[in-house]
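Researcher: We plan to redesign the surface later, but first we want a full-length starting point. Tokens attached.
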């Protein structure tokens, strides 16, 4: 797993020293660090292609393919043989010769393909030669077509950013590159052309015209001009003088209409939603624009058999609501088709993702989302969604009276009672102090909890403490010019709040800080880019300085990984771990596979032992681990230690780790909360060192125990240690 690890010590103000490991860039990722793979996709984001041979429209998303019957516009999902993620977000062209999509990816100096048969596959195409620039930054906003007559891809124009000091700028191109597939290894070259090409530009649109063996380029760079590049003999550029009025090129899409040999521009009204449709008819070096429709939609593909445009759209007031409509180019009329809600939640930024060990599902709960009403946004009531382990989202409609729409609420999952508990937040009246429960049976039921001595919420985080069956809330209070933490606990046994007054100096609150519950050590970790603290919850609440900070480039969401006993997380596309040794050690991980593209939150799936990266606007991803990443070795314990069971909560087997400073007689016993013995787990003489025992959720008689809270005690003769665990159905 090591790639030339270099010791790194960062000295900060105040004498704080951070111990970390800096990894030199690897030649390749390693599966020892895990493997990325997609879990879900989002709506119909991607590329649309009309397959005339099968009379269907194919929608290729980040990791899925939908085949839409062009006649009835009904969809079926094709199950890809391999992950389709390499194509996500790149510029694509359709290759009718081999019925595939080809993605040009200058950012990674790569070319990918997705075959579009009944069993789609994705793979990288190895190329030779020199294509569009990728250093020092990659080419973007370029146009691309597939030249079927010469079996090659043509790439025109684009921009490249130069981070030059003191004045960064964009460099624009008007060159044309060709990727030739006609013989042997596909090879890149700069296409030698004659004539006067368009001015350097980015954002141009292009089509391949097979009837006249040419490429037509429209707009880009704020222009709305048209150029033709002949593709027989020596490629030659020719300016096409067109009539007025003419469309804007802003956010337009160019399509070829074979029945008329014309170019159709779909969309292109600058500054607003692009939903106008134009058609260009050319004769020699002149052309005439005709406007078909001023509004109605922004089509994605042209159904050549029916001479109509197909528009897969989202409703602007609710981006999850999607549908399909068509525009007939002969009758100039829109026809509504299938409309449906895309099975994906919409998180306005305040939703919380919570893992439920009992069902294996991940719940996304928001108490409000913003709805566009005319030119203003109004608060809506929020939503509850469930993500299954297989990657299917389902929207739930809870009953009962729900909380008022609000933001900044604290949410935890209570595994014993199988419910989500919501505290406080801020609505139109200000900060609240109410407590609500969302029972997760069925579609869910809301109810308000009559908690005693409830404090008013004022920020910042909350965790569930399974050892004492309570919710711990970190409020913010002002002390002089600084905001510090005020700690409260809500006992679920009697629904009573208690004001905790930890020893030690409470840290100053930091915007963007990460809060993680560390079950084995019964503490809450607060980590930021300039400080790290722990709130130990037993035997007496105490603040301590962790003597660590989140390294530069590693800021992002983090979760506790019970399998490897570490924190794991980081920003989108990256993965870091922090060991829970003293002092902690940070290390960047490099899982194989294509990384996530946007990360709102992370959840650790204890049942399947995987990390889930969550987003409501892009696909969700998982990282699977072949084996726990080894932590640095530590010195033998100076006294006996008992770790928190994992997973916790547990549905089946639970592993309990403990350590002995010397050899000797050891007993470990499991009790229920009434003090009755449930199971004797260990009764033996053991050597010094680390040990573990697996409890199979059965009592001494072999019967499976019911859900609830249990205590397990380690007795070494000179020391007795006790912890609690939660068992769920």
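Model: Full-length starting sequence:
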């Amino acid at each position: 797993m090591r790639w030339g690890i270099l010791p790194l010590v960062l000295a900060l103000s105040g004498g704080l020293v951070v111990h970390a490991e800096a990894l030199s860039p690897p030649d390749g990722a390693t599966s020892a660090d895990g493997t990325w793979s997609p879990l879900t996709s989002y709506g119909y984001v991607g590329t649309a292609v009309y397959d005339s041979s099968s009379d269907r429209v194919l929608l290729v998303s980040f990791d899925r393919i939908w085949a839409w019957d062009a006649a009835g516009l009904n969809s079926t999902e094709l199950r890809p043989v391999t992950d389709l993620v390499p194509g996500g977000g790149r510029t694509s062209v359709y290759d009718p010769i081999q019925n595939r999509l080809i993605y040009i990816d200058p950012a990674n100096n790569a070319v990918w393909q997705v075959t579009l048969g009944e069993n789609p596959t994705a793979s990288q195409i190895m190329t030779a030669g020199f294509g569009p620039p990728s250093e020092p930054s990659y080419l973007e906003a370029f146009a691309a077509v597939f030249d079927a007559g010469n079996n090659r891809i043509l790439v025109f124009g684009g921009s490249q950013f130069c981070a030059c000091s003191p004045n960064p700028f964009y460099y624009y191109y008007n060159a044309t590159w060709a990727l030739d597939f006609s013989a042997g290894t596909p090879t890149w070259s700069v296409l030698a052309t004659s004539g006067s090409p368009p001015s350097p530009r980015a954002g141009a649109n292009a089509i391949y015209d097979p009837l006249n063996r040419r490429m037509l380029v429209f707009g880009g760079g704020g222009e709305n001009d048209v150029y033709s590049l002949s593709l027989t003999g020596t490629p030659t550029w020719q300016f096409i003088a067109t009539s007025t009025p003419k469309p804007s090129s802003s956010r337009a899409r160019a399509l070829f209409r074979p029945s008329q040999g014309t170019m159709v521009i779909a969309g292109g009204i600058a500054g607003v939603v692009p939903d106008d449709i134009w058609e260009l008819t050319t004769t020699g070096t002149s052309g005439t624009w005709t406007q078909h429709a001023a509004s109605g939609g922004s089509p994605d593909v042209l159904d050549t058999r029916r001479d109509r445009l197909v528009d897969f759209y989202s409703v602007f007031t609710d981006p999850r609501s999607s549908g399909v409509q068509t525009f007939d180019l002969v009758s100039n009329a829109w026809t509504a088709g299938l409309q449906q809600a895309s099975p994906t939640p919409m998180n306005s930024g305040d939703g919380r993702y919570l893992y439920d060990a009992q069902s294996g599902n991940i719940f996304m709960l928001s108490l409000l989302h913003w709805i566009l009403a005319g030119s203003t946004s109004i608060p809506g009531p929020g939503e509850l969604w469930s993500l299954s382990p297989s990657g299917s989202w389902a929207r739930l409609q809870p009953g009962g009276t729900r909380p008022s729409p609000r933001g900044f609420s604290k949410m935890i999952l209570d595994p014993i009672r199988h419910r989500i508990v919501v505290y406080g937040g801020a609505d139109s009246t200000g900060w609240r102090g109410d407590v609500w429960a969302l029972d997760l049976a069925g579609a869910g039921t809301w109810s308000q909890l009559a908690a005693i001595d409830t404090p008013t919420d004022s920020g910042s985080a909350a965790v569930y403490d399974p050892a004492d069956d309570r919710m711990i809330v970190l409020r913010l209070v002002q002390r002089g010019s600084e905001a510090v933490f005020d700690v409260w606990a809500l006992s679920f046994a009697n629904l009573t709040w208690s004001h905790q007054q930890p020893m030690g100096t409470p840290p100053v609150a930091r915007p963007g800080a990460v809060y993680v519950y560390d079950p084995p050590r019964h503490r809450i970790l607060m980590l930021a880019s300039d400080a790290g603290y722990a709130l130990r919850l037993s035997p007496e609440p105490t603040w301590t300085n962790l003597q660590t900070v989140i390294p530069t480039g590693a800021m992002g969401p983090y979760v506790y990984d019970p399998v490897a006993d570490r924190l794991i997380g980081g920003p989108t596309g990256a993965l870091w771990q922090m060991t829970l040794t003293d002092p902690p050690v940070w290390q960047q991980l490099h899982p194989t596979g294509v990384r996530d593209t946007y990360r709102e939150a992370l959840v650790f799936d204890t049942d399947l032992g995987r990390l889930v990266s969550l987003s409501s606007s892009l696909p969700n991803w998982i990282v699977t681990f072949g084996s726990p990443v080894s932590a640095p070795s530590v010195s033998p314990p100076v006294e006996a230690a008992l770790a928190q069971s994992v997973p916790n909560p547990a549905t089946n087997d639970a592993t309990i780790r403990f350590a002995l400073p010397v050899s000797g007689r050891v007993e470990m016993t499991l009790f229920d909360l009434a003090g009755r013995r449930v199971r004797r787990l260990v009764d033996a003489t053991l050597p010094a060192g680390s040990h573990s025992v697996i409890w199979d959720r059965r009592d001494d008689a072999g019967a499976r125990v019911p859900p609830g809270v249990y205590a397990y005690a380690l007795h070494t003769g000179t020391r007795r240690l006790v912890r609690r665990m939660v068992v769920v159905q």
